[in-house]
C-alpha cells in the first residue's frame, strides 16, 4: 500500500465554536497526498516548509509553538490571533508550500483544540518523540526537520 493515495476521508469542518477565544492552541496533522513517501523531508522541501511556517509565525498569521516534519506528514501546535480562521490559514500555508515545492497534500487536515496546559505538554511531547518512535533518529536533537518556540 506504500506510495498509493489513501481512501478519501469524510470532510471535516474546522470552524471553531464561538466560545473558542483567540490564542487557543490547536494540535494539527497535515499529510502528504501520497502516504509512505519521503516528500516532506526532501531537503529543499523541508527547508521551505520550516521557513514558511516561521514566516507565518513572525508575520502573525499563527503563533507556532512546535512543528515537526515527518517523511509523509507533519504535526504542529499553533494558536491563531483573533482575525485568523484555522481553515483559511492552514489552507493558505498549504497552497504556498505547494507553489514553492510542488508537494501535494491530502485534502483537509486534522485538528484538535487543546483544552488545558497538561494536554498541551502531552501533545508537545508526543510530537517531539514522533521521529524517535519512527526510528528516524535516537533523539530529537538529531532530527533536522523541526522548530519550537517556547
Molecular structure report:
By secondary structure, the chain is of the alpha+beta class. The protein has a single domain, classed as Alpha-Beta Plaits (2-Layer Sandwich). The chain is 33% helix and 19% strand. The chain is built from 3 helices and 5 strands; from the N terminus they run βαββαβαβ. A 5-stranded antiparallel beta sheet has the order 4-1-3-2-5, sandwiched between helices. Helix 1 packs antiparallel against helix 2. The longest helix has 17 residues. About 7% of the residues have low confidence.
**DSSP strand content:** 15-25%
How many DSSP helices? 3
Low-confidence stretches: 11-20
Structural category is: alpha+beta
Distance between the termini: 38 Å
- Give the strand order, joined by hyphens, for the main sheet: 4-1-3-2-5
CATH topology: Alpha-Beta Plaits
- The overall pLDDT, averaged over residues, is 89
One letter per element, helices H and strands E, the order comes to EHEEHEHE
What is the percent of helical residues? 25-40%
The CATH homologous superfamily: Transposase IS200-like
Task: Kindly provide the radius of gyration, computed on alpha-carbon positions and rounded to a whole number of angstroms.
Answer: 15 Å
Instruction: Outline the biggest β-sheet.
Output: 5 strands, antiparallel
**Which geometry do the CA atoms define?**
globular
The CATH class is identified as Alpha Beta
CATH architecture: 2-Layer Sandwich
**Count of DSSP E strands?**
5
Number of domains: 1
Amino acid at each position: 500500500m506504500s506510495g498509493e493515495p489513501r481512501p478519501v476521508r469524510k470532510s471535516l469542518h474546522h470552524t471553531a465554536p464561538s466560545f473558542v477565544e483567540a490564542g487557543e492552541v490547536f494540535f494539527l496533522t497535515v499529510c502528504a497526498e501520497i502516504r509512505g513517501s519521503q516528500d516532506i523531508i526532501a531537503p529543499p522541501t523541508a527547508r521551505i516548509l520550516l521557513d514558511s511556517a516561521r514566516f507565518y509565525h513572525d508575520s502573525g498569521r499563527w503563533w507556532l509553538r512546535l512543528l515537526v516534519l515527518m517523511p509523509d506528514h507533519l504535526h504542529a501546535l499553533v494558536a491563531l490571533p483573533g482575525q485568523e480562521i484555522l481553515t483559511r490559514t492552514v489552507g493558505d500555508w498549504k497552497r504556498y508550500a505547494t507553489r514553492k515545492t510542488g508537494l501535494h497534500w491530502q485534502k483537509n487536515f486534522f485538528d484538535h483544540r487543546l483544552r488545558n496546559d497538561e494536554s498541551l505538554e502531552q501533545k508537545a511531547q508526543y510530537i517531539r518523540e514522533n521521529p524517535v518512535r519512527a526510528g528516524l533518529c535516537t533523539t530529537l536533537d538529531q532530527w533536522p526537520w523541526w522548530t519550537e518556540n517556547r
